[in-house]
Design a protein that fits this description.
about 260 residues; alpha/beta; eight-stranded parallel beta barrel; about 40% helix; globular; binds 2-phosphoglycolic acid
Amino acid sequence: MKKNKILVVGNWKMNPENVSSALTIFKDIKKETKALKNTQVVICPPYVYLSDLEKVNSGLASSAVILGAQDMFWEKSGSYTGEISGGMLSGEGYVILGHSERRELGETDEVVAKKVSSASKVGLKTILCIGEKERDLHGDYLHFLRGQIINSLGKLPKRFLTKIIIAYEPLWAIGKGEEEAMKPGDIYETSIFIKKVLTEIYDQKVAITVPIIYGGSVNHNNAREMIISGQIQGLLVGRESLNARKFGELLKNVD
Ligand code: PGA
């Protein structure tokens, strides 16, 4: 990612239901990205669609889109049924790790940290997801977030921090209506807090350079304001990234 570009990541999750729909949506998104100047788009489809989409991506002009994965395993190879290694993905530029939906299935900070370390070593850029389940008035969620950042990064050496993007996704704001998305002012405050924690673990330079992106009910109406008033470096978009027309609108608004 060029330093000054806004990063918009589309997380397709377990969608769409077949490869031909995936190809259609992807081609339509590519068209929408042609005129973008200031935005880097990353689309993270299910693993099995990656190579088909990659062929389309390299075949069509406009390089505003990069493909990424939604997860990976930390070992290089071996008897790990159902898993995929970072090396197997290294044609892809980005990998989402520690998404709340994976954490809900039992993935711990320690597991996420092993994946982050392994992804960094093979040269993938990690979109590390963090976020609290709920906000309380006493600020306990801040302790939770702090712990999640520290433990999910594990003891990742400072040199790898150039490959880390922190995706702040409060669970209470994911998959909701537009009005339930986080307010830009709160996004801003939380991003400052995340930078404080990064300063505590590493230093200020790291804290300044690690991009922070927001996810949770982002759409074409609220995206621009989140970037401007939230003062963040990008967005992680779920549902809206599966609708090429609306996602295209979002991208233009952000750009
Ligand atoms: P949403 O999902 O945009 O549909 O709320 C975001 C996410 O889970 O990454």
